[in-house]
From TrEMBL:
Stored Pfam families: Epimerase
Source superkingdom: Bacteria
Source species of the chain: Paraburkholderia phenoliruptrix
Molecular function per GO: aldehyde dehydrogenase (NAD+) activity
Residues in the signal sequence: none
One Gene Ontology cellular component annotation held by this UniProt entry: cytoplasm
Protein name, as recorded: NAD-dependent epimerase/dehydratase domain-containing protein
Domain (NAD-dependent epimerase/dehydratase): residue spans on this chain: 6-225
Stored InterPro entries: Epimerase_deHydtase, NAD(P)-bd_dom_sf, NAD(P)-dependent_oxidoreduct
Xref: PANTHER family: NAD(P)-BINDING DOMAIN-CONTAINING PROTEIN-RELATED (PTHR48079:SF6), PROTEIN YEEZ (PTHR48079)
Length: 321
């Protein structure tokens, strides 16, 4: 029986958690919409049980959660369909409760905090999202917290900042890494000189696995901070230092995002979140470290090295000049 199920497993966070479970020899279930995608990511691992689901079907949700003790939720939606987040969470909670699941861990984001009133942000910072995406993520959290309060299931949330790492295509740094090793021009979202923090994706899995073994984690929300405050410009400079190549950059301002968004729905939806680039939010994870002990955070120099190594094996070129 798979005691742990990763819902939305095929993404980079799911693969990080799977790697941490695998390192401990623990069986796990991976749940996703696409069987080919799951088999590509996990088919070679004998510890992985592959299950597909239809998140819109109560029977499918319940079947995917059957015989599971802890469900780790990382289900993604299109960036222009954030209204689906609360709906999918509600259906997953109902299915998990019906299947007898004891615990849910939601891998969350900084969006529900809204604008930082002070940095770094602790877990008791007000949740006052001023964006649609933030409100939808807050609604998702509220459903889970209410299920815990009502005694239906044990629940916790682990909030992450922006992330990067090998093969993380959704990272703000991905195009720069491709350009650093393959040439071309790196498309980036600006401003790139403002302070920012990133978490290295392979560092996330071990933290989640430690939460699994910590009953006191449930019923609360936790922050996981990145490896320190930096800027995109500094990380680009590190890429240049490691490759010996001067990068060509094309930095999109908020106005440019609006223009590109006339033709690209993803870019259009990035406009309202651009405040995180101009008015950054940094997380304080001292409470989490008090709970589970010291957390390994890969230094940016090493994280960039691994990211570039993975980009060198990626055939997709950076944007042509």
């Amino acid at each position: 029986m798979s005691k742990v199920a990763l819902f939305g497993a095929a993404g980079v966070i799911g693969q990080s958690i799977a790697a941490a479970l695998r390192s401990e020899g623990r069986p796990y279930r991976v749940v996703g919409r696409s069987e080919p995608g799951l088999r590509k990511a996990f088919g070679a691992d004998p510890l992985a049980e592959i299950v597909t689901w239809n998140p819109d079907s109560p029977a499918s949700v319940q079947a995917a959660a059957r015989d599971v003790e802890t469900l780790i939720y990382m289900v993604g939606v299109n960036y222009w369909q954030f209204e689906l987040h609360p709906e999918l969470m509600r259906k997953t909670i109902d299915g998990a409760v019906a299947a007898g699941v004891k615990n849910i861990i939601l891998i969350g984001t900084v969006y529900p905090y809204g604008m930082a009133k002070a940095n770094p942000v602790r877990e008791d910072h007000p949740r006052e999202p001023h964006t649609f995406k933030g409100r939808m993520r807050k609604a998702q959290e509220d459903l889970l917290i209410a299920a815990h309060t009502d005694g239906r299931i044990n629940a916790t949330v682990l909030r992450l900042p922006d992330f990067y790492g090998p093969g993380v295509e959704a990272s703000l740094l991905h195009r720069a890494a491709l350009a650093a090793v393959n040439g071309g021009t790196a498309d980036m979202v600006g401003p790139i000189d403002c302070p920012h923090e990133f978490v290295f994706v392979p560092d996330v899995g071990p933290v989640v696995v430690r939460l699994l073994a910590t009953p006191a984690a449930f019923g609360k929300i936790w922050n996981l901070a990145g490896a320190g405050v930096t800027t995109q410009r500094e990380l680009v400079s590190e890429m240049e230092r490691q490759t010996g190549t001067k990068l060509k950059l094309r930095v999109a301002t908020k106005t440019m995002l609006r223009l590109i968004g006339l033709f690209n729905p993803f870019m259009r939806e990035m406009v309202e979140m651009n405040y995180l680039m101009t008015d950054p939010l940094f997380m304080d994870d001292s409470a989490l470290q008090e709970l589970i002990g010291p957390i390994r955070k890969t230094p940016y120099v090493e994280g960039i090295r691994q990211t570039l190594a993975a980009a060198a094996n990626t055939r997709a070129p950076a944007t042509a000049t």
